[in-house]
Amino acid sequence: MSVGLDHLAAAPRLLVALDFDGTVAPLVDDPSTSRITADAAAAIARLRALPATWVAFVSGRPLDTLAALTASGPDALLVGSHGVEVSIRGELAAARLSDDERARMTRLEVELEQLVAAVPGAWLEYKPVGYGVPTRLVEQAELVAPLQQAARDAADAIGGFTTRLGKDIIEFSVRDVTKGDGVRMLRELLVAEEGGPVAVLYAGDDVTDEDAFAVLEPGDLGVKVGEGDTAAAERVADVDAFAGLLEALAAAREASAASH
Ligand SMILES: O=P(O)(O)OC[C@H]1O[C@H](O[C@H]2O[C@H](CO)[C@@H](O)[C@H](O)[C@H]2O)[C@H](O)[C@@H](O)[C@@H]1O
Asked: Are 186 and 198 in contact (CB under 8 A)?
């Protein structure tokens, strides 16, 4: 076990904040079929059962989808839509779009629908504060870059969109909020409730997770799942390896709790 995990195992208060796709659930072609692995689910259940230990999901997924995919109960801490939507133990902070935001989304929707219709295998994800254009199933790989550029141009022409390039997806949001904002909010919430510092483990696999790694503080640990540039201090190879890390953390924290 790394020094980082030892430290987290003994931390007086611990927040385990997890990205979903590519971190606890393997990437698949159809996002509706994504499932958290049994090993990750078991480790998360063990962590949740420990004192002063909280598990949150921080995802680009819409909040309702994230809640369903993580089988979240009333105690869940969820951040969806890359930080825009929040649900704290059932208390929902949904995104209320202004008339201007709604109008810009409608304009972009029309343009994106036309663009994906012209590229076999492309389709449109309709999200509460924007759209995703998944390209995983695009039949002709050479059409992906032009599609993404045309989608980017359409969003730029309308204005006011945050663009994110993820794994086989380009996404557009009318809100400039990030997963980093979500992690910061979760930490502040727990610090206020518990009256003391909270160590954070954040894990993620994609570029959007770098916003969360960027808000980590001394005593926290960032874990990058898979390849790619990262500011995270640790890296594991894949979803299964990360489930192993969660299991090791759960075991070490159980031992730490038993010794106090
Ligand atoms: O922040 P995350 O929990 O990682 O969610 C980010 C996006 O995840 C989904 O797309 C990704 O997973 C899909 C299913 O495995 C995969 O087909 C796609 O290539 C990945 O980019 C989801 O569809 C998006 O809406 C999320 O924003």
From this structure: no
Distance, in Å, from the CA atom of 182 to the CA atom of 188, rounded to the nearest integer, reads 10
Compute the distance from residue 34 Cα to the ligand 1 centre, in Å. 9
Which ligand 1 atom is at minimum distance from the Cα of 30?
Answer: 17
> Could you report the per-residue pLDDT of 24-38, keeping only the tens digit for each?
999 999 999 999 999
Whether residue 132 sits in one domain with residue 32: no
Rounded distance from Cα 53 to ligand 1 centre (Å): 27
Instruction: Residue 34: give its domain's CATH number.
Output: 3.40.50.1000
CATH assignment of the domain containing 126: 3.30.70.1020
Question: Mind listing the pLDDT tens digit for each residue in 80-101?
Answer: 999 999 999 988 877 889 999 9
ipTM above 0.95, yes or no: yes
pTM across the whole model: 0.96
CA of 165 to the centre of ligand 1 (A): 11
**Containing domain of residue 45, as a range?**
3-95+177-258
Contacts 24+ apart (CB under 8 A), 209-218: 209/19, 209/23, 209/179, 211/83, 211/178, 211/179, 211/180, 211/181, 212/17, 212/19, 212/58, 212/178, 212/179, 212/180, 212/182, 212/183, 214/180, 215/180, 215/181, 215/183, 215/184, 216/183
Torsion of CA 124, 126, 130, 134, to 10 degrees: -30
User: How do residues 199-251 score in pLDDT, each as one tens digit?
Assistant: 999 999 999 999 999 999 999 999 999 999 999 999 999 999 999 999 999 99
